[in-house]
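Sequence in, structure out. First:
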Amino acid sequence: MKAIALTRYLPIENPESLIDIELDRPSPAGHDVLVAIKAIAVNPVDVKVRAPKDAVEKSPRVLGWDAAGVVHAVGPDVSRFKVGDRVFYAGDITRPGSNSEFQLVDERIVGNMPQSLSFEQAAALPLTAITAWEALFDRLKVPVGSGTPAKSILIIGGAGGVGSIAIQLAVKVAGLSVIATASRPESEKWVRELGAQHVINHFGDLPAQLKERGFDHVDYVLILNDTDRHFPAAAAAVAPQGMICTIVENAAPLDVSLLKAKSAGFVWEFMFTRSMFQTADMQEQGNLLDKVAGLIDDKTIVSTLSQVLSPINAANLRQAHATLETGRVIGKIVLKDF
């Protein structure tokens, strides 16, 4: 089968950073489904894993954590899917990724693809939708359905992949008042179209900008870029007994004592936790993807696809990685068709 892989961790400008190869097609066992991949998306995790370092792989390593495709074969313990089903998923960071014609993935972290979407539109969703859903509803414990009065959330990095889904879920599913950050006219337009009622600039003074818009504090803060830089502002902005969640690792220790007087909470979201540790509730990822598919099909939320490259090959994947490395991507970049 065709695949794109690496053996060395090189700058993306190097043509050897991602290469076209041929691999044997794997066979499913246990709870695995074998998916014939039709489209893949690129995420910051791809860039971070591929980033230059001295390590050398003994065998080619296939990256990729977003895919949509068709079930080609199933393992003996599979009960949720059958051959021919259209599916989407983000996969497991401890296993070979989706940058290949066929991929094995545990059925418990797979969802039924939205019926109203193309493969490329569906491939833009899984990793960001899982991350946003878990951050809001599992980590921050945001209740589903609007309250009176509506609670508020500050989403730092609203125009990226996760932010684009988080805004929609926060507004349409949770009924929150959403303040998103954006720093360019095109990204501000994007987040407003997705439902953000207020927009502030993450390069400015966040608490001061919130106050200018009538928010002394916010009930929730979701940090989607540069935790080190934004944590002090998040701690100042969060309400007493509020909650902060981040998806971005920190480089230096965070001063969580800033939260003590407010009895405020701080929590991490890492969407690979359930698959990495085979948690008892691992099936919840498949369940939430099915819920997201329903929200897409009833037009509550929309796919955040912003760019499509074709075919799926090393040259186009390197281009997608390079674009993502600029830090100025709005929505999601997808590749389709081998």
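Second:
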Amino acid sequence: MNDKGTQKIAIVTGGASGLGFAIAQKLVCKKITTIIVGRNAQKLQEAKSQLGEFCHIRVADLTTLEAIPAWVEMIVNEFGKIDVLVNNAGINMKKPTTEVTDLEFQQIIQTNLTSVFTLSREVSKHMIRAGEGNIVNISSMAAHYGIPKVVAYTASKSAIEGMTRSLAVDLSPLGIRVNCVAPGFIETNMSAAALNSDPERKNRVLARTPMGKLGVPQDVANAVYFLTSDEASFITGAVLPVDGGNSIGF
């Protein structure tokens, strides 16, 4: 392992696939020691085999809130510090509002919001001691306008953006920058299949995207890396849409 003092250490939740994998790939390319976290050991192992020596894997269910403080402590003991936290893990559910149960709503809030708060709180304690750090949250275009049948997801992502601003105000005086990336329609395996099977929806998406195309996961990864880098040293509390202009398109 590199010298603990100089080597940057990053955590990416949900880092085994999709946007999380692309973010981890970007950080690893920049020779940042990157710990990817997820629930599926096999998926994490497959991701690590592609990401190489700068990638480490940790199997964890971050919705088990009471386990997070000890888990963070363990990471710090092993790696020496945490410089970057990317809160990417999240779940979605498409269902008419009147059919969403209280339990389903709470499960999405617990995964997408509460666990993000708990992990950020615990990691920031160590960042405060170090006098520096970066937290990047992943939001969604669902926080910017109404999308049908995703009420719980929308509530969680709207709250993430508010929490980003509040954390930035609390933590930035202590040397920690907190920002947020709000991806638009990004071409992942899952979304591409969904849009290709619904040409009308795909045309509607592209028609209101001024750049006239879908993004790729690397677009989001580049934005996340920028926000954690020294190039963004005077940016905190920002929500950066990476959406080809979709959120302002008409």
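Remark: Residues 9-184+217-241 form a domain with the Rossmann fold fold (CATH 3.40.50.720).
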